Amino acid sequence: MEYLAYIPSPSRGVIHLGPIPLRGYAFCIIIGVFVAVWLGNRRWIARGGRTGTVADIAVWAVPFGLVGGRLYHVITDYELYFSEGRDWVDAFKVWQGGLGIWGAIALGAVGAWIGCRRRGIPLPAYADAIAPGIAFAQAIGRWGNWFNQELYGRETHVPWALHITSSEGGRVPGYYHPTFLYESLWCIGVGFLVIWADRRFKLGHGRAFALYVAAYCVGRGWIEYMRVDDAHHFLGLRLNDWTAMLVFLLAVLYIVLSTKKRPGREAVVEPGVADGTAEADAAGESGAGETAESGESGEAGDTAEAEKTDPAPRAESAAADDGRKAEAEEDAEADAKDEAGSAAKKS
Fold first, then answer.
1. How far is CA 262 from the centre of its chain?
2. Which of 182, 193, 299, 325 has its CA 20 to 30 A from that of 159?
3. Distance between the two ends of the chain, CA-based, in angstroms?
4. If phi over 0 gives left and psi between -120 and 50 gives alpha, with beta otherwise, what is residue 282?
5. 3-state DSSP call for residue 270?
6. 183, 142 contact by CB (below 8 A)
7. How far apart are CA 277 and CA 50, in angstroms?
8. Which residues contact 186 (CB under 8 A, 6 or more apart)?
9. Stretch 291-309: mean pLDDT
């Protein structure tokens, strides 16, 4: 059957720059991290935090998240690495794909908690700031699956079908649902949903992050159901479907309980920011006062210095004073004469 339109797969997912391999999967992950940190920093500053704090904590969160994502994948798909005929060393080859978002979020939260604790910052406030950025990072990261020709859905004849050309790892070339694209678009929608809801309802104390988790789980549920790659099943559903349902319920429960216990948003997200501003203002006022005082004393000093260097003004002032004294004495003598004349007339 001929397809009038489809999404082509890249002929290869790695380009060699001399001895250095440049992998599309790694680039997507790295770009996603930068987007998450950039947007998280803007949101953190808008909430009253310092610039650079998000990046400092990400130094802890990102490595923990990568390890957690890989661990979840290896544990849930252990037969790919530890069954007969498999090489367990492949479990460390992250560039070949295989990062479970559930493990990445869970262990990444541990790393973020360590970073927040070192700076005295509440983890829920930090999580709210970076929540949309994580969604956008996932949207970018899913394109890494396109480079690796993996995680596609059932066969289809839709115009946007994904053309798989590789036969490695048990793949069968053909046209399939591009579930990587579905999830990428869904994550973009989740990111904008969290931004809108956060502005509209002033979400705080971790509720923006919980909304991201719940919304993502809804999309992951139906997208996971379409995938045809090998996975463990339980009661007819893939393991990740059950994980999505459980995490969704926990996220909704957190939103409900948090709203009752801690309504509104944190007044202070990073201790010391407001105090630092007040101290800066006080320093500015003190500087202004010192400037005024120095200006006054400078003027007085200038006057005194001018008098020392130029004696003419002092001479003129002394002459004027003498003139005023002479006039006063003459007036006093005239008054005395008038009084004496008046007395003589009366006598």
1. 22
2. 193
3. 151
4. alpha
5. coil
6. yes
7. 11
8. 216, 219, 220, 223
9. 46
Query: Cα–Cα distances in Å, from 114 out to 64, 126, 127, 178, 268?
Result: 10, 12, 13, 37, 19
Give the pLDDT confidence of 108-127 residue by residue, as tens digits.
999 999 999 999 999 999 99
CA 339 to CA 337: how far, in whole Å? 5
Q: Report percent pLDDT > 70 for the chain.
A: 78
| pTM of the predicted model as reported, rounded to 2 decimal places | 0.76
CA-only gyration radius of the chain, Å = 39
Q: Cβ distance 153 to 178 under 8 Å? A: yes
Q: Read off the amino acid at residue 101.
A: I
The CA-based dihedral angle spanning residues 243, 244, 249, 251, taken in that order and rounded to the nearest 10 degrees? 110
CA distances to 291, 310, 311 from 297, rounded to whole Å, are 10, 20, 21
| Chain segment 152-211, per-residue pLDDT in tens | 999 998 999 999 998 887 788 999 999 999 999 999 999 999 999 999 999 999 999 999
